[in-house]
Amino acid sequence: MSGYNNRLARFLCIASLSSLLAACSSNPTADLEDYVQTTKSQQKSSIEPLPEFKPYESFAYQAADLRDPFTAPSFSHVQPSSQVASSNNGIKPDFARATEPLEEFPLDSLRMVGTLEQHEDHWALINDVDGTIHRVEPGNYAGQNHGKITRITEYEVELTEIVPDGIGGWMERQASIAISE
Fold this sequence. Notes:
Blueprint: H1 2-25, H2 30-41, E1 111-118, E2 121-127, E3 133-136, E4 141-142, E5 147-152, E6 156-164, E7 170-178
Antiparallel strand pairs: 1-2, 2-3, 4-5, 5-6, 6-7
């Protein structure tokens, strides 16, 4: 019986190998060829043409008659009658006086924290950026624009600043430091 089983096993092995060879003998690239044919048969899409560019127009920069930007301007061509005269109103800061400690700080960085009063004298307490408290009275200076303290009330310190007027002179401007809560 074992001879019969051996023959049967050989026969089955040969049959399966034959069927595998038969399957391989068909065209292995058939599916690829079908895909290529399908793709070729589809309608071709149109490609948009490239945009048309305008040709570059060169520009010759002729600056021989213009002022050199790296040299200081000369105003010799301006007529004296058309020049704006600087204001001569007599207002100007006193550069000869000694500066006070609160003049090194911008006015908006100073804070009024209180007032003191004794008899007829009034003082304001001003806190600077460093945390130092200064006692000031009318006549003292504060801020970086030559601000002279003119009046002290319970709620604010009023100053008169001397600032440039933009045309070579000086002008006065009112300012104040309000009490901070």
